Amino acid sequence: MSVQQLTYPRPEKGSGFDLTIPRSPIVDAYRQSTQGSEVLHLRAEQALAGGNSRQVSYWSPHPIAIASADGAHLTDVDGRRYIDFTNNYTSLVHGHAYPPILETVDRQIKNGTVWSAQNEHQIDLAELLVERIPAIDKVRFTNSGTEASNLALSIARAVTKRHKILMSRFGYHGSLTETETGSFNHDYPATTYLGEYNNAESFENILEHHGEEIAAVFLEPVLGSAGIIAADREFLLRVKEAAHKAGALFILDEVVTFRLHEGGRQKALGIEADLTMLGKLIGGGFPVGAVGGPDDLMDVFQSSDLRTYHSGTFNGNPVTTAAGVVAVRDLTQKSIDEMEKLAERLKNGLAAAAQKVNLPFCVSHVGSLMNVFFSNEIPQAALMREDQAAMSRFHIAALNQGLFIAGRGLMAMSTIMDEALIDEAIDRAAVAMSDVAAEL
Ligand SMILES: Cc1ncc(COP(=O)(O)O)c(C=O)c1O
Predict the structure, then answer these.
(1) Tens of pLDDT along 347-390?
(2) Where are the beta strands (DSSP E) in 183-230?
(3) Most buried one in 17, 20, 109, 314, CB count within 10 A?
(4) Mutate which of 172, 184, 258, 266 to test ligand 1's pocket (most atoms within 8 Å of Cβ)?
(5) How far apart are alpha carbons 56 and 52 in whole angstroms?
(6) CATH number of 99-329
(7) Ligand 1 centroid to residue 313 C-alpha, Å
């Protein structure tokens, strides 16, 4: 099997999904109430390529421009308030402007924001991660999950002297050309093999036939951007075994899933990765990424035996890492369990609301993460969804009701949410669903 042999729908625009919807009462109401955002979007299109710097922050007819954020809420430039269920795509696990992080960052920035020497906060954050994740003895920081992918790949290449990778179809490990192919059907990275998620045999076959070329297998313990689809423990264990048999590293991407357990999803499942990628929440709202692993692999950075060069002007900077220490410290197992209960409440409330207006509906759900679908069954991945007409309308209809969710239906809880807020969100979603039902 090779990358070129696999075919799947090529996304048109935006976050990998064509969010263009025809003119309708939902769209008219949206345009009417978000005129300030439209003006900024027109201006953005003059100076920013594609009108933005982040594909998921674009949607049709124009994205909302946010003026401020606090706790569980966003306020747009037209003064409209939204309950935010994206939490910057799962990274703000304590919501916006979390006071303990603000206080820490405020103290830090008065002492300088970055310098080209050691700072204690990055040591504190590294120690905290080593304490939390059994598979990690040492950590190295980057500025994004994408850079963590690149770093993990560099380590794997240095250790194995191989070049290629194996990942899951529909997997996402950041916008690195080697890994984008999982979702975006680029033809050019001849460096990447794709297996089928939750199908151990497909990974075993590729490793059996091409193992000697493969430096590492990258896997998300839960497919995130592909719609919150959990991996079976058995699948992960079999892929790890096959990777080791082939002499490749087994890398778990916990950029999103670290929020699912104090020690990451791997601890919850009792599996240890060779290398673990982290990002999002560990920066407390600031740009971050990290790779961690056991001493024998992370030794590629020992100055006495430097086998991988890694530098970065803002790596491990004191602002990000000070914020990250607070974010990780305050993410306790108790708060993780409470977020899961809120997600369960939200899921049940949304299902009841959909049923009331006869919309097909289902939810993929792991812990504090969920993805909604307007179909009777959860698709293999969000890119395979057949409910695009309903989803795109619901996205805009929800915004009209002051509910901010991802265009692909992702909803992530934060520790500062409570039952009353969830019930308010369900009420708003119910109105949005009834607007959608009227248009379909
Ligand atoms: C599983 C996973 N890995 C890596 C990344 C890339 O992280 P970043 O956007 O910080 O580059 C993401 C981002 O969404 C992700 O979901």
Answers:
(1) 999 999 999 999 999 999 999 999 999 999 999 988 889 999 99
(2) 192-195, 214-219, 222-223, 229-230
(3) 17
(4) 172
(5) 9
(6) 3.40.640.10
(7) 20
